[in-house]
Amino acid sequence: MGRLHARVYSQMPRVKVTRIFDASADASGAVGEEFNLPVAKTLPELLEKVDAVTIAVPTRFHLSVAEQCLARKIACLIEKPLAKSVEEGKRIVELARQNGTTVQVGHIERFNPAIRAMSRLDIKPRFMEVTRISPMTFRSIDVGVVLDMMIHDIDIVLRLAASDVTKIDAVGVSVIGEVEDICNARLTFANGCVANLTASRLAMRTERKLRVFAHDAYVSIDYQKRHGIVVRRTGNIDAVRQAAAKIRSGEIEDLSQLNYKDIVHIEELQIDDVEPLRAELDAFIDAITDGSTPVVSAEDGLRAVDVATRIVQTIGPPTLA
Length: 321
Fold this sequence. Notes:
38% helix; Dihydrodipicolinate Reductase, domain 2; alpha/beta; three-stranded parallel sheet; 11 helices; Rossmann fold
């Protein structure tokens, strides 16, 4: 992720990349050469030259690096999850407040064009169904699938539900290690909304989908394809009732005579083609220059870590497959 951030920053006219740093000199040297960026030999050397940073290091180092940055009032974009634990997440939030410094969390799905398109709709979910499955990448087998993958969807459903989680039911299965590789969690919110989330890193295919059911609309989003549809109650209910009346009267004897696409009006969401990472970094720079609350604040990141932790605790020791 650090390499990807470096690429995008180097393309942004209002950003000057003054230093990049990696614990591996080979890694930072390769990225510096690829994008023609100056390389710092140490983290302190980098911190002397910057006003803002992306922290894209293993999660267990997020707090230690963020502490050094925030002590100097350097704005931070911290890759997801915010921290490895609720306690460390709270410390980052506290440091950001004490120093009056911007912290944004890298929940990049917030910037998926389909999610941004849906955010322009006035949707109040009653039920959400989320699936995020893929083959094993072998990159994060020391971290369970909840903090590795499901954390994306936890952040999204928390924002959409806009309510506190009052109950969690979850089950997880471990296949290759001591942490869960597959998890299903059911979140119940104080406002009555329910979210069902499934994550697996042992699937034979990749699927990343979100379905939102509201009183007056249904939205379906494919994260991977960056595509979405909305079906609204208004404009469809009369057509459905007319079709039902024809069936009851015998005017239509065979359901195969019905063309559901003629009955139900499906709208495609208006999707832009902005790269999610570019949108994320633009939002980070906006928050710094405007002094506004980041799109994904440290508090948002902490809430996601808190719910993820509660899911893992609910699972308990994962069942071995």
